[in-house]
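Technical note accompanying the year-one report. For the benefit of new consortium partners, we illustrate the data format agreed upon in the data management plan: each record pairs a sequence with a C-alpha cell string. No post-processing was applied to the example shown here.
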Amino acid sequence: MITGSLIRGTPEDAALPVDVITNEALQEQGSPSLVDLVRTIPSVSGGNIGESNRFLGGAAAGVATINLRGLGLTRTLSLMNGERLSTITAAGGQEFVNINVVPTIAIGQVEVLRDGAAATYGSDAVAGVVNFITRRDLDGFEANAKYALIDGSDGDYEGAIAWGAKLDNGNVLLAASYRHRSELNGVDLPWTLPNAIFPDTVNVSGISGASNPGGYNAVLGTPVIGPNGGFVQDPTRPGVPLGATLSSTFSDAGCTQLGGLSFVPNGQCFYPFTYHDTRVAREDHYHLFGEANFQLNDSLRFHGEVLWSRTEVPDDRVSASQSTVQFPTPIEASGASPGGGTSLMPAAPGAIQSRYYVPASNPGLQALFNPCPTATQPQITAAICAGALANGVTMNQTQWRPAAMGGNPIHGFDADRQSNRITSYRVVGGLVGELANGWEWRTSLNYMRAEQVNKTPDRYVNRIQLALRGLGGPGCNPATGTPGAGGCQYLNPFANSIRTSSINGANYAQATGLPQGPAIDPGLWAWLQDYAVSTTTQQLATAQVQLAGDLGEFRLWSGDAISWAVGAQWRYNERTIELSSNFDGDATPCVDSQPYGDGVPGCASPGGGPFTFIGSGRESDIDRQVYSFFGEVQVPVFETVVASFAIRNERYGGNVGDTTNPRASVRWQVTPWMAIRGSAGTTFRAPPVAALDPGFGFIQAQFSNPVTGAPLYRPVQTFGNPNLEPETADTYNIGFLFESGGFQGQIDFFKFAFKNEITTETAARIYGSMFPSSNAATWQCGTAALFERFRFGTETVNSTLYGGQAVPTCHPNNFLSVRNNVINGPDTEITGIDLNASYSGLDFLNGNLTVGGDASILNDYNRGPGILLNTNIVFDAALNRAGKSELLSAFYSYPRLRGNVYANWDIGDHNLRWTTRYWAGTDDVNAVVAGQRLHRDDRWVHDFTYRLTLQEKWAATLSVKNVFDDQPPFYKSQYNYDYMTQNPLGRVFEFGVQAKF
C-alpha cells in the first residue's frame, strides 16, 4: 500500500511525496514509541502533544499527536490500514487523533504523505496523511520487552506479544501490549522550575499572582453579613460591604520564605504552580489487536481487524488549588438576593459577584494579627490591625487562592490530582473481488468509538465561605450549627496554616517568626473539594465502495494501460458530552444552586457553575453525515512520463454545504538517474463537529499584566460557532528524485495557501488588544465589542500602586476571565523545502555502511491578521511565524530548519546506528528586550543504538538517547523549554529484548 493514491501498484517514488518508514528501519532506531518517532520526522513541526500536555487541558493527558507542517493537530489525517481513526476532543474544543491507540508491535511500516490529500481522502488531510500499516510477515510468536532508565523517575517499560500465521490462503495476526510511563516531576528537573533570577519578568513563567500567601483587605467599620456568609452589598460602592470600608490591599506574610516569588512594586506574592506539575505524567497504555486476511476463492479476498485500546492517566499532578474567579453572591441592602448567579451575566458586562469574607472569629485571622502591628509585616498598620481584628478581612479578588505553597490537604499537602481515561475500540471489515474483465472492486466498513472520562478538581464557592465562618464540614448544619463547635469547622485561609511548604519544605512559624495558626483539616478540605467529570464519546462510521481497473487496449504513446479508480463513501461522526451535575450549567448554573450552594433561586442558565475556577459546561449530542464521490486516473503518457488526476466531492448539507477538490500530478523520468515530480491541487477541512456546537468549554491560559509585568493565569471560555465555513487550501509540490548506484536523494519544494482557516481567537491576543501597554490611555475599555468579552472584579483601592486612588473595574489587576470563539480566520501561506538523501552499500570493516539524512526547511509561514468575530477589531497582527515561537497560549514553535543525519553499520549479527538531530533556534515572541525578541539557541541531540541478532530468533537492543545529556535551550514557557518539539528527559538508557518462536 502506498498512501495517497487509489491506483493499484503505485510505486513509492511516484508523483506524490511519500516517506516510507519500514519495520526494519524502526528496529534499527531501537523501536521507538510513537511519541519518539513523531519527533524524528522533520516535516512534523509546530506543536505536538507528547509528554507535557497540561496546557492543552486535562483531556489531552496521555495523548500523542502528529502535526505535519505545523499546520495544527487537526489538519493531519491519521489512518490505520488506509481507514480513518476516530478523533478525541481536548479542552477548548480541538479535535484530533490520538495515535497512542495504535499498537506498535502490530505495525509493519509507517507512510507519511507530505502533501494535501483531500482529493483522495476528503476532509482533514490538509497538511498530509500518516498511515500506520500493520504487518503480515509474522509466522509464529514474537515477544518484546523494553525498559528505559530515566533520571528522576522510575523509568518507562513495556511488554508486547504477538502471534501470526502465514497460511496458504492468507494470514492472521493477534497482538497484545502494555506500556507504562512513570511520573517525572518538576522538582526532579530543577531547570524547568520558575525562579526569581529575572526580576524584569521577561523570562519568568509558570507562576500566578493568585497565591497563598495571598492578598487581603481589612474591613474598617462593621459589615452587614448575609445569610450565605457573604457581605451585604452596599448599592453605592461595588465590592464593599454595607456599613464598612476596605483598607488598601495588604499581603500575608511568608511569601519568599515558603518558596513564592515577589518581584513587582507592591510586593505581591506569586505562586510557582509548575512546581506541582508533572513533566511526564504516569501513563498506562493497553492494546489488543487482531487481523485476518483470507483468499476466500480465486476472485474474492476478505480483510478484517479489531482493536481495543485504553489509556489511563490516574494521577496527573496539578496546582495545589485553582485561583478564585467566582465568589459568594452579594445580598442587597434590602436583604433580598439579586437572583443568585445572575450577577455572572449582568446587564452591565464585566461585573462580578462579591468576594470572600473572613470574620474576626476565624482563628487563622486571630493568629495572623497576634502580635500586630509587627516589624515583619510593615504594610499592616495599626489601623488595619484594629479594623481586621474587629471586623474581619476580605480576600483580594485576584491575589488569593485557597491553597498554594502549603499544598493540597487531601493529597498529603502536595499537588492536587486530575485524571483522564480514554477507551477506544474499532472494527473494520472488507471484501476485495475481481471481475471477469480484470477490474477490481472493494467494499469496507469501519466503526470506531472513543470515550474520554476526565476528572478535574475544584472547590465549591459557598462551601468555602461557610467554612471561613466556621460552618464548614460534612457534619455541620449551617442553619443550626455553632461556628467552630461540634461538627462545624473553620477554614484557615492564611499562610500561617502551613506546617511544611510543599515548595521548599519551610515551616511558616520558623521562617517568619510569627505565630502559627491552625492547620487545615484534610476532612474539611475533602468536603470543600469535588471533581467536575466530563464523559465525551466520539463515534466514527464509514462505508466505502470502490471500483478500479484499466482501459484495456486504449493506450497512449507509452504503450502502457491507463489505470482508473472510482468510488463512494458514507461517513458518520457523532460527539456526545455528558457532565456530572456539578459541571452541568443547566443542572447547576451558579454558586447558589443546590446541593452545592445555599439554594437561592433565580440562577441564570448557563451561569458560571458552583466552583471557584473551572466554570460550567453544557451537555450536547451532535452528529453529521457526509457523502463522498471520488475518482482517479493514471495516464502513462510516454514511457518516461506518467500523469494522474484525482477529484473528490464531499456533501455535508446544512451550513457547510459541499466541496469539490481536484489534484493533478506528474512524474517525468528525465534520465536514468533523475526524475522530476510535481503536483497541484485544492484541499479542504470541514468544521469539526465539536466546533459547530454553540456551547462552550473551558481551558486555562497565561496572560501578561502590562502594569506589573507579571504573568497571570486565568480561565478562557471558548464558544463554538454553528456558522463556520470550511477552510480551503491550494497546495503545490515540485520535487527532484535522484538515484544512482547506492545513492538515493529527493528535494521537494512545497507551498500551502489557506483561506478561511478554522481557528480559535487567541485569548492572550484579545487581552493584549484590551490592554496594549501599561499606559491607561491606550486601554480599550470603551470599545464595547472588546469589553463584553471580559469578566472583571471590583477592586476599589490599592494605595501602593495607585496612590490610594480607586482602581477602575476595567483594569489588568481586576481581570478574571475572557471569552473567545471558534472562527474562520485569516489567510495563511507556507513555503519550504524537504530534503532526503542516503547512500548504502559502502564496505566498511567487512560490514555494510549506510549514511543518510533528512531535513525540512521552513521558508515562510505568513499568516494574516486575526479579526474578532462580528467586528473589524484586529486582535492578532499579521506575522511570519517562520523562525518564531510562542509557547504560552498561541501558536507554539516553528524552527526554520529541522533535520537528522545518521550512520548505520550492519555487520553480521550486529547493527550499530548513530543519529544526530538538529532543531534551529527561534525568536521567542514572549521575550522582548529593548524592542527585540530574544533568539533562542539551536539544539543538537545525539542518539546511539546497538542491536544484536542471534539465529534470527533472538535480539537485544541497547539505545542511548541524548548521549551527551544535552539540556533543551531556555524558552519562555511554563516549563522553561519548548515542550511542543522537545522532551525534558536527559540521557536515557533503553534496554530491549525480542524473541521469536
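Partners are asked to follow this layout when depositing records. The chain is about 5% helix and 45% strand.
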